[in-house]
Amino acid sequence: MAISDIDFVLPWVDGNDPDWLSQFSRYATGVEGDKRKSRYRDWDNLQYLFRGFEQFTPWVRKIHFVTCGHVPSWLDLNHEKLNVVKHEDFIDEEHLPIFSCNPIEVNLHRIPGLSEKFVYFNDDCFISKTVGVDRFFENGLPKDIFAFNTIVQSPISHIKINDVQAINRHFNKHEVVQKNFLKLFNYRYSSLEMFKTMLLMPWPFMTGFFDPHQPQPYLKKTFTEVWEHEPEILQATSRSVVRCSQDVNQYLFRYWRLCKGEFSPIGFGNTFSKIIHSVADAELVCRKLLSRKCQLISINDDLQDEQSFFKVQEMVNSALMEILPHKSSFEL
Question: Which of the chain's termini has less CB crowding within 10 Å, N or C?
Answer without folding.
Answer: N
